[in-house]
Amino acid sequence: MTILSANKVSVRYPGQARPALAGVSLAIGPDDLTVALGPSGCGKTTLLNLFAGFVQPDSGTISFAGQPVTGPGAERAVVFQHDALLPWLNVRDNVAFGLRLQGVAKAERLARADEVLRLVDLPEAGGRYSWQLSGGQRQRVGIARALASHSQVLLMDEPFGALDAFTREQMQELLLKVWQQARRRIFLITHDIEEALFLATELVLMSPGPGRIVETLRPGFSQRYRDGESARAIKSDPAFIALREQLLTTLFDHRRQAEEIAA
Amino acid sequence: MNALENTLEQKLAAVAASKPVPDEIVPDPAVLRSGWWAQYRRGWLSLLSLITVLGGWWGLSHSGIVPPLFLPSPEAVLAKLVTVSTQGFMDATLWQHLAASLQRIVLALAAAVLLGIPLGVLMGVSPVARGLLDPLIEAYRPVPPLAYLPLIVIWFGIGELSKVLLIFLAVLAPVIIATSHGVAQVSRNRLRAAQTLGASRSQLLWFVILPEALPEILTGIRIGLGTGWSTLVAAELVAATRGLGFMVQSAAQFLVTDVVILGIVVIAVIAFALELGLRLLQRRLAPWHGQQD
Ligand SMILES: Nc1ncnc2c1ncn2[C@@H]1O[C@H](COP(=O)(O)OP(=O)(O)OP(=O)(O)O)[C@@H](O)[C@H]1O
Ligand SMILES: [Mg+2]
Description:
Chain B: This is Taurine ABC transporter permease TauC. The structure holds two protein chains of two kinds. Chain A is built from ten helices and ten strands. Chain A has helices at about 45-50, 90-95, 95-100, 105-120, 135-150, 165-180, 195-200, 220-225, 230-235, 240-260, and strands spanning about 5-10, 20-30, 35, 60-65, 65-70, 75-80, 155, 185-190, 200-205, 210-215. In chain A, helix 4 crosses helix 5 (about 135-150) and helix 7 (about 195-200) packs across helix 10 (about 240-260). In chain A, about 50% of the residues are buried. Chain B is globular. Classes of the chains: A alpha/beta, B mainly alpha. Magnesium ion (MG) binds next to helix 1 of chain A. Adenosine-5'-triphosphate (ATP) binds next to helix 1 of chain A.
């Protein structure tokens, strides 16, 4: 059963010659960690914004659990790359913010916040403020906030894009743990090929001009991680490397084609 | 699941997460060793310049070069502080003059905040409101308040209303402008994040927009109070029977120079206290302001 889906959606921003997305269809199922990978400008953020309800398609439909999506909603939480925590609230209140908006009693929502903070390995940080945290810690709080309010899908726009390589890898492992324990569907955007291959149960490859999906694959490496293999072992596996190189070649091929068409 | 928890990376992540980030910047030991001078250098320098001015004043007034009518000694002014506080000057004690001035500025400030913040928010969120109000504010803001004081006196007389109105107008513009600016600058990601957490429009306003604009609003109030205070004192020179401006003005007419100086010092101290108080309030209410996020 699909939870969130795009059906032949197209978007053209005012004043732009080419559509940002043309006829894109994608379904996110109940156990999916779907990753969209593609070069800058291929419409990844636009697709995520459609799912979130920030942007409306010119044609086609977005639906959540069978109902058309017409705007933002609490069942589809978004984790942004930066700038999305509220600096006047401490970490615990940030995480509990969604529940507060829904009118959940204070004791209950703070207990829930502490529970989710433990899940993202930040059990001690509840009383601190976002501006006292490192970039990686902030992203954990962002993930915790999205989980706390009983959302059903997490939409993540390059959540680890601003982090250093080491923290990034930690966060990828954390995300897999969270995804498994909290049983949420995830739609994640990245332009890091390794990240996409490692995390995705379903990987969609996008290409610009106009933005579209050019390939879909199911890499299965995250399943190996769940089965107990270490991240480094997976990422240095010849099969992983071969697939990574193959994806790179595909992306470059599409880039060249797009440039030839444009020329 | 066990294997998941036990990888080296997981442990490192746990260690990194539990290590607290220091709240304050710990001073470099070299700075601590070089002692009290280096640590509070600016404070000492300020104190030094203050003492120099006071000393110069004391020396000059005691040298006999300048007659007390032009420059009374610091002790004379200090003595006047006692007599004006207890016996009063022009039918009112210093505290009554001060209270009259403070009452005007507080009334004007309250009115300017009550009207200015909603108008500023409206301008910040609605391009229509901005289009309508912006020219009005930009037209009256650059005009010095004393320039339209005569018109206000013609319309509203020389009573309290005129003075409060003048000061209100001086505070209003900076409050509106700062509020609308702060509101328009609210991070789109924060708004969107709140929306996906289920925030309604009014919840967005109360829980995201107003808190995020708060530091800017306080800056607007601080600037407004500064201009408001100087405007008020000037207005009291023109038409009043009580107030610090009036006290200085009437003392000057009777050549009571020590009261003139006393009044000026009190006016300066109040201005400084207002500025400082608002800075403290800002740091208190918006500690994140100026921190990178
Ligand atoms: N608000 C907008 N107005 C006009 N054009 C836009 C707007 N947002 C995006 N675009 C254009 O639409 C196309 C797709 O943009 P989008 O942000 O979805 O790409 P992306 O894949 O997320 O890129 P990146 O990896 O750089 O974030 C780009 O050509 C971009 O210039
Ligand atoms: Mg993007």
